[in-house]
Amino acid sequence: MDAQSSAWNDIVKKANDEGSLTLYTSMGQENAEPKLYAAFKKAYPNIKINLTFLATGDLINKLNQELSGQVKGADAVMHASPGWFADTYKANQFAALQVSPDNQAAGWDKLLNGKSYATWWGFQYVLGYSKSQPTPPADLKALLDANPQAKIGLVSPKASQAAANVYETLRQTYGDGFLDQLAKARYTVYNSNSELSAAFGAGAVDYAYPDQVNTTAPLIAKGAQVAQLVTKNARAGANYNVAVMLNAPHPNAAQVWANFVMSKDGQEAIVQDNAPAGTVPTNVPGAAPWDQVNFLDPSQWTNDKWNAWIAKYWTPRFK
Predict the structure, then answer these.
(1) Is residue 310, in this structure, part of any structural domain at all?
(2) Does one domain contain both 96 and 230?
(3) 300 lies in a domain?
């Protein structure tokens, strides 16, 4: 729903009066000061962000429990499970998204495509490597060709459809034989990207895939001797959506937040926070090409397909 200038100014005024925003997110860097949050604070100094950070799967469980109990918890929600957003939108649990005049001019009406939640940024998974190891080749296949016994941390595809989509992208690119090759490496499977990043940063594994910039970068900033590279082949990633909850305790602050992350300043900040893997649907210098990443398509990853994929391709190969 479009907001005219006077109506949008009224939303901003009410948001400042509310004075706070409860944000549920699975984006990492919760202990740092990402440029995104710093930019928001600069633009809206009267709105305090109260952050609840959990891995996507855990966050979904919390949200579903609150929705079933009609608990007023989150004002705005951001995480990487597009299926949850699609289902929750169909269940009429989101408030209508008020699009500011500036975001209307930037083309967000078309990008929203009638939905009341926004796909506002995405990322490509990266290959993490320990600085004690040589810089790996351009992609995971080349790494395993050169080092079949690589000590590598993997995220379980049971963690999310997005993780399963990563391995399916690898399989489609290199064939079933690649999964056999990966299973012969010295692998350790972790339940989430947060767990993988923690183990990787602590030196439990030499390589990490699929690694995320926004969960490993804070560890690098604290001195972890690891680095990351964007692979050239089999590029897979996930989108983050943002929505305003229908029962938001601070509904106007939530609308301001949603519009900020869609804005030029918000889009530029998230790309900088996630360089070189961050990408957005708008034209931002330095962003990875939006159309070159195989993003998770929830319509193609139903629960039945997800479970069938795990049973066919993962379980026979990996412990």
Answers:
(1) no
(2) no
(3) no
Whether 33 is covered by a domain: the verdict is: yes
Residues 263 and 290 in one domain: yes
Query: Domain with 253 in it: what CATH number?
Result: 3.40.190.10
Please provide the size of the chain in residues.
319
314 part of a folded domain: no
Least confident piece of the model among 18-32, 34-48, 174-188, 275-289: 18-32
Tens-place pLDDT, residues 48-87: 999 999 888 899 999 999 999 999 999 999 998 888 999 9
Q: What is the pLDDT of residues 18-50, one digit of tens each?
A: 999 999 998 865 445 689 999 999 999 999 999
Going edge to edge, which strands form the sheet with 207-211?
A: 186-190, 151-155, 207-211, 126-130, 226-229
Domain count, the chain: 2
In contact, 140 and 236? CB cutoff 8 Å: no
Q: Are strands 207-211 and 151-155 parallel, antiparallel or unpaired?
A: parallel
This model's pTM is above 0.85: no
